[in-house]
Amino acid sequence: MNTAVDTHIQPTRPLLAMRSVSKLFSNGTQALTDVSLTVRPGEFVSLLGPSGCGKSTALRIIAGLGGASSGSIDWPSTRINPNGKPESDISFVFQEPTLLPWRNVFDNVYLPLQLKGQSRTSASRLVEDALKTVGLTEFRKAFPRELSGGMKMRVSIARAMVTRPKLLLMDEPFAALDEITRQKLNDDVLTLWAETGVSVVFVTHSVFESAYLSTRIVVMKARPGRIHEDFEVNQGAVRDEEFRTSESYRMTCERVSHSLSQAMYGEGGH
Amino acid sequence: MANGNGQAAQDLALKVFIPLAVLGVIVAAWWAVVKLTGTPPYILPDPGAVAAALIKDWPILWPAFVVTTKITFMALGLALVGGTVLAILLVQSRWFELAFYPIAVILQVTPIVAIAPLILIYTPTTQMALLICAFLVAFFPILSNMVQGLKSVDHNHLNLFELYGASWMQTLWHLKIPAAQPYFMTGLKIGGGLSLIAAVVAEFAAGSAGAGSGLAFRLMESQFRLNIPRLFAALLMLSALGVAIFALTSFVAWLVLHRWHESSIEREN
Ligand SMILES: Nc1ncnc2c1ncn2[C@@H]1O[C@H](COP(=O)(O)OP(=O)(O)OP(=O)(O)O)[C@@H](O)[C@H]1O
Ligand SMILES: [Mg+2]
Fold first, then answer.
1. Are B59 and B120 in a shared domain?
2. DSSP-assigned letters across all residues of B5-36
């Protein structure tokens, strides 16, 4: 590709640039080889691929949880803290809600701000805002065990968004939920994404989920984990019920499926 | 809702009534056996004689009760603080764990009655010796439960705290210590019971007299003088103390855990 064209398409500096990142675990598993991935501000990137291809590993490396064996991760447009991490700008939604069971909903969402030294009163506005965006204002005093799976996941999202991150990492956040709840939460995430301009890296196993949500889809291959294909989709489309039945959505699904089966079974897999 | 409340009240009434009824039956049976067989009071006094001894010997028994209570609670308090602090140090530092855990184990596995005479030699007062014995016994269950609890923190929670750049102090205070609470409460309940047992057993071993002696000494003394009603009265006070400790530690555990932990929550499906 021509650099001039590149610059034209991407006027902004990338938020995140992984360059030739590899990860070798101490037990000898080569989880990632030579993964290069850039995320631009406002992008919604889905990571898709067979089980064990290193999606979670990649996400953890981006978050600074467990370093890469080689390669580098740059944050061209972010200030870096002395300890080498752009902490305040990243949030993580894990596959499980990982709420603290001894804290009520409000205090769970308050946690990231508390760890940054904000007092409860000064943080209360931000926490209430975050609870409102996920529709859980009434449940601020409830304990996690009193919530349904979908509600817990919402609390987890509120907790991730309360710090107003620039990058939101989500690792199969809705895999354990039913289809209806999942669609609702997908729409919630899209609303948040549109309202806040946060960049999202979203790991999923679902072709449909990735086609519905993403502006870009990265398909990965296993053994060793690497990027198979990286393409932009549905730029600028409005994601609503109509979009689910649109031609461009259908074509994206087809393209992702095709790419995925190639990644899993090689070139002859379609 | 009203139905649920009625149910709960009925439940509570049953919980109080059944044990009381059983206790009443036992006391009545005891009384009947003594009366029917004509057992003399120096072998088995009837409940009335025990109650009379409790009232008559109150000036002797009450100070002894206070001494035993003090030793038990001081030992438990020290064990709670010591066990928790040491557990935190052990978990924070591998070096510390290697150095001190074996010593804690040695202290635990050595029967306390065997150390008691030795401790007596080195301490200025008997009470101090009893305190040390009770402490040593109560300390280990609290330590080991707390270590277990601090180590059982969910890895995802640790990742979360790392992601948000929490300091080790914040991770300890906001994550590890709350996560260890259920384990701590187990340690508290076991330690509470053991510190009373140790305070009594150590006093048996010490066997000293004097103004500052506890219930165990009064027990032995009564046996020696064949004052069996007083022996039973002392025993009754010891059980009451044990029950009170059990109730108190259970209540504390409930208070801390009932909002969130499965162990303190009624199952509702
Ligand atoms: N802590 C670890 N130690 C050793 N190997 C690991 C570790 N974590 C992951 N792996 C290995 O690295 C590879 C990638 O794992 P990863 O969890 O990133 O896969 P994934 O793409 O997220 O899979 P899934 O879709 O099933 O979640 C796997 O082969 C896995 O066995
Ligand atoms: Mg994974």
1. yes
2. HHHHHHHHHHHHHHHHHHHHHHHHHHHHHHHH
- Other C-beta atoms closer than 10 Å to the C-beta of B96 total 14
Query: What does the alpha-carbon distance between residue A229 and residue B99 come to, in Å, rounded to a whole number?
Result: 54
Asked if B71 and B127 touch (Cβ cutoff 8 Å), the reply is yes
DSSP assignment letter at B111? -
For A41-59, what is the mean pLDDT? 91
ipTM: 0.85
CA distance A231 to A213: 14
Residue numbers of the domain that contains B123? 42-268
Mean pLDDT of A180-209: 90
- Pick from B162, B178, B265: CB nearest A102: B178
Mean pLDDT by 10 residues, chain B (269 residues): 67 88 94 90 89 93 94 95 93 86 82 80 87 90 92 92 91 95 94 92 76 86 90 94 94 90 72
d(CA A223, CA A56): 14
The verdict on a CB contact (< 8 Å) between A102 and B161 is no
Residue A44 contacts residue A213 (beta carbons within 8 Å): yes
B157 interface with A at CB cutoff 8 Å = yes
User: What is the rounded distance in angstroms from the CA atom of residue A207 to the CA atom of residue A217?
Assistant: 10
**Residues B117, B214: one domain?**
yes
Instruction: Give chain A's domains with CATH numbers.
Output: 3-89+166-265 (3.40.50.300), 99-164 (no CATH)
HSE-up of B79 (CA within 13 Å, CB side)? 35
The Cα angle at residue B99 between residues B111 and B89, in degrees rounded to 5? 95
Q: pLDDT at residue A78 above 70?
A: no
Sheet holding A226-232, edge to edge: A90-93, A167-171, A199-204, A44-48, A216-221, A226-232
Task: Please give the interface size between A and B, counted as residue pairs whose CB atoms are below 8 Å apart.
Answer: 58
- Which residue's C-alpha comes closest to atom 7 of ligand 1? A25
**B32 and B54 both lie in a single domain:** no
Total domain count for chain B?
Answer: 2
> Which tokens go with B118?
């030795």
Type of residue at A212: Y
Does B189 lie in the same domain as B105? yes
Co-location of B211 and B96 in the same domain? yes
| Same domain (yes/no): B251, B136 | yes
Does B164 contact chain A (CB < 8 Å)? yes
- Given a cut of 60, whether residue A255 has pLDDT beyond it is yes
pTM of the model: 0.83
| CA B104 – CA B143 distance, rounded (Å) | 9
